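re: ur question from earlier - yeah i can do the single chain one, its not a big deal. heres the input i used so u can compare w yours
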Amino acid sequence: MNIVDQTYLDILDRILSEGTRETNRTGTDTVSLFGLSYRLPVTAEAFPILTHKKIQWRSLVTEMIWYLSGEPHIRNLQQHTKIWDAWSDADGNLETAYGRFWRYYPVPDYAAPIRRDNSNYLCDGESLVNLADSKYRHELIIDADKNIVLPCFDQLRWVIDELKRNPRSRRLHITAWYPPNATVSKLPPCHHSFTLNYQGGKLNLHLQQRSSDHCVGNPFNLTCYSLLLLLICREVNLEPGDFYHSITDAHIYVDHIEPYRAASREAYELPRLDLSQLGDRSMFDLTYDDIDRIQLINYQHGAVIKLLVAV
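and the output i got, formated as C-alpha cells:
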C-alpha cells in the first residue's frame, strides 16, 4: 500500500481505538483524539492523494485557486463547486475565507501611526512595517458606494518574496486566524496556519490545524497543502520536501464509522501531478480558467465513500 493511504488509514484506526466519544456544536457526536501528527513526502512524481477512495480533484483545485485569489466571498467559487455553500449566506458571502486572510490580513490604519523615532508602533516594542508605499499593502473594499476600505497585508506575497531573498528564514509563517473574526464566525479556520521551512536543500510545509474531520476534511487538507507546496516550489525554484501536519482535535463523526468499515481499503499507486500547462505563469495570476490545467496523471482510485457533512 502506498504511504499516503497507509498513513491515513492507520490514523483512522488509531482515532477509533484510542479516541473518546464527545459531543460538539453540530449535534452529531465524534470519536476524538487529542494531539496527532504525521509526515508525508511530497513530489510531483508520486503526488499525495488518497486512492482507496475517490477524491474530487477538480473541486480541490478550484478551492486552491480560490485561496490564492484572496476572495472574501464564494460567488465565483460556487460556479465550479458547491463545497463551501453550507457556510455562506444567500449572496455568497462567507464569514471566514482562508485565502482572504492569506492575501488581505487586516492591519491598523497607517494614516495615523503611533510613532517612535523613525518606526511605527502599536505599543512599546511592537513595531510595524510601514506599508504606505509597499506592494504588500492591499485595500479590501468593504462598501464601494460608501468608500469603506480596509487596509490589509499580503502575507503570501511577502513569504514568497522572502523565500527568494532568504530561503533559510525561520519566519515564513502564514495565518488565517484573525481573533476578532474567529470568535464570531460560523466556521473559523480549521487549518489555521502554515509554516514553510527550508532544510537539506528542500522546502517543507508544516500545517497547523485546530480541528480535523478525518473522513471528510483531512483527505482534502493533505492534498490541498501538498499542491500548495509544489506551486510555491515552482514559484521560487526550490525542491519540495515533506508535508507535516499537526492536529489538535482529530475526530471521526459517528455516522461516518460504518460507511468506512464497509468500504474497500484497496489502494493504488500514487498519480503524477502535471503543472506544465501553466507555462511560466505565476501562482498569483491563476484564475478559475486554469482549473483543468492542473492535472493528475494516472489517478486510479476506489469508489466515492458517501458521507454526510456535519455543519
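The chain has two domains: 3-104+154-297, 105-153. not sure if urs matches, ping me
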